[in-house]
Amino acid sequence: MSLFLIVALLLIGVLVPIYTERFGRKINTFATMLAPGIAFAYIISLIDNIFAGEHIIEYLQWIPSVGLTLSLHLDGLALMFALLILGIGLLVIFYANYYLSDKEDAGRFYAYLILFMTAMLSIVLSNNVLQMWMAWEVTSISSFLLISFWGHKSESRKGARMALTVTGAGGLALLAGLLLIGDIVGSYELSVILGSGETIINHALYPVVLTLVLLGAFTKSAQFPFHFWLPHAMAAPTPVSAYLHSATMVKAGIFLMARFYPVLAGTEMWFLIVTTAGLMTLLLGAYVALFKHDLKGLLAYSTISHLGLITLLLGLDTRLAAVAALFHIMNHAVFKASLFMAAGIIDHESGSRDMRKLNGLWQFMPYTATLAMVAAASMAGVPLFNGFLSKEMFLAETLHQHAFGFLSWMIPVLATLAGVFSVAYSLRFIHDVFFNGEPVDLPKTPHEPPRFMKLPIEVLVVICILVGLFPVMMIGDFLAVASKAVLRTTDLPYYSLSIWHGFNLPLMMSGIAILGGIIVYAYRSKLYRFQSQFMQTDAKLIFEGVVQTVISRLSQAHERFDTGSLQRYVAAMLVFTIALIGLPLFEFDVGFEPVNMQDVSGIEISLGVIMCLSAIATMIFHRQRLVALIAISVVGLVLSIAFARFSAPDLALTQLAVEVATVILLMLALFFLPKKTASESAPSRVVRDLGIAAAFGGLVATINYIFITQPLASISEFYLANSKTGGGGTNAVNVILVDFRGLDTLGEILVLGIAALGIFKMLARIRLAMPSSDEKGRPWSTDRYPPIVSMVSQALLPLALLVSFYIFLRGHNMPGGGFIAGLITAVAMIQQYIAHGVEWIKPRVKVDYQNLIGLGVLIAAFTGVASWGFGYPFMTTWFDYFDIPFIGEIELASALVFDLGVYLTVVGATLMILAHLGKLSTPERPKVEA
Amino acid sequence: MLNIAVIFVGVILCIALILNLIRLFLGPNTADRILALDTMYINSIALILVYGMHSETPLYFEAALLIAMLGFVSSVAFSKYLLRGDIIE
Q1: pLDDT tens, residue by residue, A747-776
Q2: What is the sign, positive or negative, of the torsion defined by CA atoms of A495, A500, A505, A510?
Q3: How far apart are alpha carbons A749 and A67 in whole angstroms?
Q4: What's the rounded Cα separation, in Å, for the pair A325 and A261?
Q5: Nearest-CA neighbor of A124 among A6, A229, A31?
């Protein structure tokens, strides 16, 4: 098996719960546990390799041409996290089996949970930082889904939104940071990056990189000042809180800091930022936790505080501090997950989480109470439990550092103070809930939970005790390999995991913390009274307020640009283009060579004059829309004659077909415009618009002139020389379209199809008022379909189809091709719509234009794919000559099939747009008087 | 001889096109303008065919064919617009 299989297995595991839900809750749960179970067993089987100092790295080619490789690795740090993620994940799934009520959608819940597990595991296993970032974002999203699992509750939705916003924003900062790192190091492979710490630290952009990466880490790990989302994430079901928001996801930020410890840590800036943030978070979390009446609220702030503790340890400038940080990551995950599960049981079996109501539960659930007490003692740092050991290491490390210069003595003092509060809130968790009198009007009578609901807690609590009693045996090796990975060394600094170090300062600090905690708890009512003088601030309200303000500001700014005025859009676009194209022209002066002009005849000059005059007339008549349309048709007509004259017959054909389709389209749109003439523009506007238009026209003319006069090496020669030999066609234009640049054409017809579908969708809901008379107020004629037009049009259709077929077939060698043929067919069909109406066409043409577009794109794509079947690259064309009796030699080319795809797409898209615009005006529409 | 005739016809067609254009600008009715455009299509067909004869190639005849067909469609569409406003009912 390989690491990739693990991730793939878990991804498949996301679907398992959805499909096994129908077999009942039990089977569902066990089926869900299958994939993580196998993954867990596999990782366990690798433990020996890692302990032996191995560093497993696996690669999978993804897009080798742009240097993207998927790579996974497993080292000591990844091993530690992988076991935490999978192990606690399994327990949480098992626990959720009992926690979720029968009515709840457990399949969906498990699917989200496994999705999260996959993402989280991918973070720790990724050897490529971009890949790691992807997984990072998926954890944010799956966390959002899990917090909002009870979507009917407003607080769930708001909490989920807040968590997603904060962690998502941090994720973007992280992406920027990782891209910078990749740029500095020249690789996104973690194994390379971790070896180039010197390069990064000495780089000028190091402060930026550090800030961005730490932003990502702090938001994810709820460090001050981004800690506020975590308490609101407690709106999630308790298994989620136990898993994501205490044991794993919030540790992702810590993991990130540990992962990049070898390359980013060790500088003044790192110590200062990380230590300060950690210390603030540690104190704030511990202090606020004491005042939370909600069980989960208390645990949430306690989690924040412990995350701060770990961050602080990573910020301290001793190598042992990093070891202590890793140790505490494991311990915290174990005891906090069990505490959350205990809180979930209490909530589940008594109906409340309010510690003012929950009292004296010892008599109802002594067994759960015992488990919770052990876990809470571990959290408080009581000797003989695992929490005590890492806390001792932490306190010892606070004594040996100098990050704050002469003020460094503050760190151990403040750490002890945080310890005092930590003991106090742990005590409150136990004493308030299980003792302290009788319960106060609980919704139901508390009782012990089902037997196996306690199993996950038992497992975790046993680990707490075993680690507390036999630390070296239990986790000595794990800690050692993880520390080696973080510190990137093979010989670790000396540390002792024994429980007893003699009477020393850290032990004294622990003692002070425990005594102080008891005293603080005893006098808590005074503290509550003091605290109640402060205004209660709800982060949710503030956050929502900020979000609303930002949204309204941005939409104001947006409205300033997006005014709905077409004139303004066009003006902005043209001015921008002028700036973009015009500015480089200033620096580009090679002098104009005198060129040999072609002889110009009187006919050409007069046609040119006609075109110019029509263009000007279009502008003069622009307030009489139909006349302007007629005038611009003349421009199109003369243009196509010009194309024919100057040896571009393909363009001439295309121009003609497009011209008619466009005119019809404009007429369809014009019909719905208000009939009244728009008011005259102000003189200043006329000048402005004239200026922009003149500048743009001048620019285009200049560019044309440059192209005509400069001797340019053109690619045309290549196409002309190779179109017959390489593509089998003598019409180079068509061969370019369907062969040389076939991929472009495929993309273009795809875009055309998408545009047509978009227009279809936009028109589907539109309701337009239909004018009942023309501009002069004359009513419309009652003769809807004049018979002469109908008859002639009907006769025209077969002829037009024949022409279209002819143009299509000969396209490869002579002017023509699928695009022009498609337009001709479409226009011929539109003619039938005009002459007979939609109602007449409907029963006669039973073609769904959407399907036509889809079919066209599929045929074109299939022709491209088919060349794979013959062992050639995508879009290789094939042609050969055949001798058919009576007809003679003909050429068959695979490009013709491709062209068929183009043809179908063009027909479908054009008809879809025009016919649907036409359908807007059914008689049921409201009418307005002109 | 044919060459001279061809050039002569080309010049005549050009004059016709210019006259059409004048009618198109002057109007006075929209129907006049549509008719002027339609006549321009026909004159263009002739011009292209004459040009094809002049340069002795049939390459441009498809363009003439298309103008004949599509010009008709466009004239019908304009007329339908005058008649009903809504060209596809």
Answers
A1: 888 999 999 988 888 887 777 777 777 777
A2: positive
A3: 30
A4: 12
A5: A6
Residues in chain B: 89
Three-state secondary-structure class, residue A573 = helix
* Residue B61 forms contact with A (CB below 8 Å): no
Calculate ∠ Cα B45-B49-B50, nearest 5°. Answer: 115
C-alpha distances out from residue A502 to A301, A310, A396, A508, Å: 32, 25, 13, 10
CB A517 within 8 A of CB A424: yes
Chain A residue numbers with beta carbons less than 8 Å from the beta carbon of B84 are 780-781, 784
pLDDT score of A240 more than 90: yes
Whole-angstrom distance, CA of residue A695 vs CA of residue A50: 70
Residues 6+ apart with CB under 8 A from A187: A193
Torsion of CA A3, A8, A9, A13, to 10 degrees: 140
Cα atoms in the Cβ-side hemisphere of radius 13 Å centred on A693: 10
Kindly report the three-state secondary structure assignment for every residue of A755-787. HHHHHHHHHHCCCCCEECECCCCCECCCCCCCH
Quote the pLDDT of residue A713: 67
Quick check: bond before A231 cis, omega within 30? no
Q: Do A657 and B59 touch (CB under 8 A)?
A: no
Q: What ipTM does this complex have?
A: 0.95
**Which tokens hold the place of A722?**
């190779």
Kindly tell me if the per-residue pLDDT of A889 is higher than 70.
Answer: no
- Grouping H, G, I as helix, E, B as strand and the rest as coil, residue A438 is coil
Which residues of chain A have a CB within 8 Å of the CB of B6? none
* A925 pLDDT more than 60: no
Question: Is-contact A478 A392, C-beta < 8 A?
Answer: no
Chain B residues in contact with A827 by the CB 8 A cut-off are 70, 73
Domains and CATH numbers, chain B: 2-84 (1.10.287)
| Cβ within 8 Å of residue A463, ≥6 positions away | A334, A386, A474
- The size of the A-B interface in CB pairs under 8 A is 165
- Using the CB atoms, write b or e for A879-893: b if 16+ within 10 Å: beeeeeeeeeeeeeb
Rounded CA separation A731/A813 (Å): 4
Q: Is the Cβ–Cβ distance between A610 and B17 less than 8 Å?
A: yes
